Automatic annotation (TrEMBL):
Residues that span the membrane, as ranges: 24-42
CDD domains: retinol-DH_like_SDR_c_like
Keyword vocabulary terms for this entry: Membrane, Transmembrane, Transmembrane helix
Pfam family, one: adh_short
Record has Transmembrane helix as a keyword: yes
SUPFAM superfamilies: NAD(P)-binding Rossmann-fold domains
Family statement: Belongs to the short-chain dehydrogenases/reductases (SDR) family.
Family matches, as InterPro entries: NAD(P)-bd_dom_sf, SDR_fam, TIC32
Protein name as annotated: Short-chain dehydrogenase TIC 32, chloroplastic-like
Length: 357
């Protein structure tokens, strides 16, 4: 607002004489007005009463979740760390599934320092290794703990072409397949918890608006490992489309079987986290980078806001019974039509089942 008023005042000022100065001021005023419009758009509350500017603490205020147990994958960084912190703040016993135990322990120590009553455990989980997923699930299931919430949060974005430990394209393997197997292996425990406690279980898949931009064929069932046609962002879009399809198919199965568990997917917003580590190839003073950075400043959210939609879907009472939906900005949103294709979701389920077996 201040920048806009200053630019307009500058434009009207009689001391501004040159055309360049006037053009510059006019451009600044237009950009500031755009910034105001964008900020208004992001800050306006949806029907939930929240917006993409709401924080994870705000959307869970007043919720007493003590007695619940959650697994948060990728809780050692970014959105996952904040999700784990806020769930713990609301009384949830949080199990952080992390591939780097040292950073997982650091996050846990920081959390307990801030919230001395927090119940937090760290367990090793590498989603790009089916053996690691099996070990994690087996250790968790044999611990006898209940499981109410599963937050499939971990992810990588736009990596160069790589294969997972099981020889599957790395983004598909990490973002979708590892979570697919993990969810399947934890389902009996979740179902038992929901039955015995009579409390609805919730599964939350972190997708992205990138789910709208996969390969032209959606999921490359016939050539998932094709290196020559590999496009790092389309491969990310493919894996994020799989996250939505996976949640939808889980929801369909739960409804069919009368299981008291919901499954939803979401876009957390755009947050500057370690996710962008493979996309920082432009030099710091590159004009494109400078332009993108200033543009990003208008739409970027912080991690407190980035974890809000996850915590809303995981804990807010408004979401009770809502399943097979896509959320963004702490509100229901429309996922792309491909991701709502029930046949495609079934096909992905069978394809994934074959791969993990
Ligand atoms: N940030 C955004 O703008 C944005 C936008 C849309 C969607 N998302 C989604 O939000 C989720 C969280 O992303 P973020 O932004 O918080 O990124 P982040 O800070 O990079 O966190 C990702 C987490 O996933 C973990 N991870 C990566 N590969 C793993 C593996 N093989 N096994 C286990 N854990 C693994 C990372 O562990 P390490 O710390 O060991 O690397 C890290 O803890 C992702 O699913 C992402 O696609 C983010």
């Amino acid at each position: 607002m201040l920048a806009c008023s200053m630019a307009i005042a500058f434009l009207c000022s009689t001391t501004v004489r040159t055309i360049q100065e006037r053009l510059l001021a006019a451009a600044a005023a237009v950009l500031s007005l755009h910034a105001l419009l964008i900020m208004w758009f992001f800050n306006r509350n949806g029907s939930s009463g929240f917006s993409s500017s709401s924080t994870a603490e705000e959307v869970t205020r007043g919720v007493d979740a003590s007695g619940l147990t959650a697994i948060v994958t990728g809780a050692s960084s970014g959105i996952g760390t904040e999700t784990a912190r806020v769930l713990a703040l609301r009384g949830v016993h949080v199990i952080m599934g992390v591939r780097n135990m040292a950073s997982g322990r650091d996050v846990k120590d920081a959390m307990i320092k801030e919230i001395p009553t927090a119940k937090v455990d760290v367990m090793e989980l590498d989603l790009s290794s089916l053996a690691s997923v099996r070990k994690f699930a087996s250790d968790f299931n044999s611990s006898g703990r209940p499981l109410n919430l599963l937050i499939n949060n971990a992810g990588i974005m736009a990596t160069p072409f790589m294969l997972s430990k099981d020889n599957i394209e790395l983004q598909f393997a990490t973002n979708h397949l590892g979570h697919f197997l993990l969810t399947n292996l934890l389902l009996d425990t979740m179902k038992k918890t929901a039955r015995e406690s009579d409390i609805e279980g919730r599964i939350v898949n972190l997708s992205s608006e990138f789910h709208r931009y996969p390969y032209p064929e959606g999921i490359r069932f016939d050539n998932i490992n094709d290196q020559s046609g590999y496009k790092r962002f389309l491969a990310y879009g493919q894996s994020k489309l799989a996250n939505v399809l996976h949640a939808n198919e889980l929801a369909r199965r739960f409804k069919e079987d009368g299981v008291n568990i919901t499954a939803n997917s979401l876009h957390p917003g755009v947050i500057a986290t370690n996710l962008f580590r493979h996309n920082m190839s432009l030099a710091n003073d590159n004009p494109i980078r400078v332009f993108l950075k200033s543009l990003a400043g208008l739409v970027l959210r912080n991690v407190q806001q980035g974890a809000a939609t996850t915590c809303y879907v995981a804990l807010n009472p408004q979401v009770k019974g809502v399943s097979g939906e896509y959320f963004s900005g702490c509100n229901l949103a429309a996922a792309c039509s491909v991701s709502r294709d029930a046949e495609l979701a079934k096909k992905l389920w069978d394809f994934s089942m074959d791969l993990v077996q």
